[in-house]
Luciferase-like monooxygenase (Aquirufa nivalisilvae), 331 residues
Amino acid sequence: MSKIPISVLELAPIPQGGTAATAIERTVEIAQHAEALGFYRIWLAEHHNMEFIASSATSVLIGHVAGKTSHIRVGSGGIMLPNHSPLVIAEQFGTLASMYPNRIDLGLGRAPGTDQQTARVLRRDNMDTAYHFPKDVEQLQLYFSEENSMAQVRAFPAEGIDVPIWILGSSTDSAYLAAKMGLPYAFAAHFAPAQFRAAIDIYRKNFIPSSQLDKPYVMACVNVVGADTDEEAAFLRSSLIRMFVGIITNRRVPLAPPGPLPEAYQIPEIRAMADKMLACSFYGSQETLQHQLGNFIEETGIDELMVATYIFDGEKKKKSYSILKQALSSL
């Protein structure tokens, strides 16, 4: 099995006792650490009306992280395009790519990245924008293209700049679109693994080559917690479980230290929902991760692995990435 690129997904979660400023500072440290380890890219995700997530102004944070690193690719995982005008996104990412050439990625999602009430505010009560997603992606591509040079509306400095566009997904709908448009496909198996295998199969079978990509390219995002021992990794993973239980019960709290699991996790229905969402999670020592992820990569045939790591302690989080790198380097 050939080695594949490893990348990082960051939401700049605010830990218990921390602030948005400390979360952003930690995100920069993670990016610098991932770069030193040889990770290929780091993506930031757009979320809104979430008190303990500091990545709402995604384009701004991408620029900050790119400016604090030297060569790792930095991008969006993703920009929720129905929340924005394609022209504005073209201008923002054209600017980023002008500042940091050949380092910026533009991952696009259809979901709002928030609750429905906040989505209505973002979209100015036009909730039909999600249905225009395919056309908006095409419009975005046109703004980046030199073919738009004779149009009345043009995007500067985006025009003629190469910013790779990705389709993000958590269902089979996105797979059909990515295949039809001949774009690379990133699947959010870290929180919605149920349709992962079906989606990548659809994508591969229906892929049509494009000017950006001549064959299918699949990236899977999964949860990973690495530690010196399986027991320590299981303990650190409790922070992740607590976070997901908070999402399910709508009791969101800052990223908490590891510890006893909440009582709500003992409710069968809630536990089943959490376990289903965490089905693509891998935790353990270097040897355990090597075995688990090696099997996952071989079974799915993915082209790139992106990992989300929710560990309260910043140094232990960085160590988890180091252990992951060692594990996959040994394959």
